[in-house]
Each structure stands twice: as C-alpha cells, then as structure tokens.
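Note to self: keep these together.
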Amino acid sequence: MTATAALDWAVIDTVLLDMDGTLLDLRYDNWFWRELVPSHYARHQGLDLHAAQARLRPRFQAVHGTMEWYCIDYWSETLGLDIAALKRDSLPEVRFLPGAEQFLARLERSGKRRVLVTNAHPTTLALKNEQARLTRWFDACYSTHPFKVPKEHGEFWPRLLAAERFEPRRTLIVDDSLPVLDAARAFGIAWLRAVRRPDSSRPAQETGLYTGIDRVAELM
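Structure:
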C-alpha cells in the first residue's frame, strides 16, 4: 500500500481527482451552507440567523456522509429553498485552490487519464463548471448521484470501475475526505493523497495515515 510512499508516476496510469476541497476552494461550500443558506432559511422561517443555524445544524449532521447530504433536490424540498438558484447567484464566489489550474495543465501534458469524481449533485457540478470551466481538464467526469452511493461507501468503487475500467493498482486518488480515502484504499487503489487545506481560509487538517499535501501542485 502506497498511502505514504513517494509517488512513482511511471506506474500510475489514472488520476482520480475530487472537486470541492481538492481542486476548488472549500471556502465557498463552507460559506454557502453555514452562512448563506441559514440566512435565507432565517428569512423564510422568521428566525434570526443564530436560531436558524441552530435549527439546521442537527439536520445537516443527521445525513452527513449520505447521498441526501450532497443532494440539492433533497435540501430544496426539506428547507423550502431553491438551492440551485442560490448556487447560481453565488457562482462568482467559486474559485480554484491555489496552484490547481497549473497542476491540471501539467497533468494534461503527462498523458495520464484524468478523471473527476465528485459527490456533488450533477446540477452543482454543471453550475461550478460554468464558473470554473473545470471539466475541460478531464477525460471523464462523474457525479456519484447516478451511482446511488457516495464515495465514502465501499459499494461505490465497483460501480465506478464498471463505468471507467481503471486498474486500481495503477491509480492515484486525491481527496480531502479521509473516509473517501479509506474506502478507496479498501477497494485496492494503490496511490492515495489527502489534501490538508481544502478551505484556504482555515488551518490545515490532519490526514491520518495518508501523506498530506497542502495543494495538488505539490504532486508534480
């Protein structure tokens, strides 16, 4: 297992990259769900912001790590808000993490197969792509929603393999979620890297048994 070994690009054919917190700054998503959505929910429910945040917090925690957590249709129905419209209105806040575009350009020249794999809802992926033009850097892009299970769960990886046909032992995955890396490792993906600073406004996070990188540019 090469969760900590130095990368050997000669034996890596496929690179699986996460979107939010790996390529795009998670600062946007944290702001969106912790401040913007609660502020609109507060107005909708006649609450002050702190009361709205307190009401929403257990709702978020109850489904964290499930498909519902990542599903904007679920949250639109649950909260009585048009989450897609809020995302569209706030698109100017979506930004790449430092060095991410430069890394993608270098990866393109490397000849490796480049695959985006995100838990984000397909509508979220489409909207962020409008702003960041992210998908132009990839040979294939997948939202987990058509697979019916998020990356944190072991059932996802055989389903992705059936669609993408990559060789796990010759694959690198980069993600900011340790549960995702745990599931990928259990499936047999050999090369794993964890992003320490998914949110540029926050301190680095611990990466456990995985080699951590502050930004993807460090990989090349």
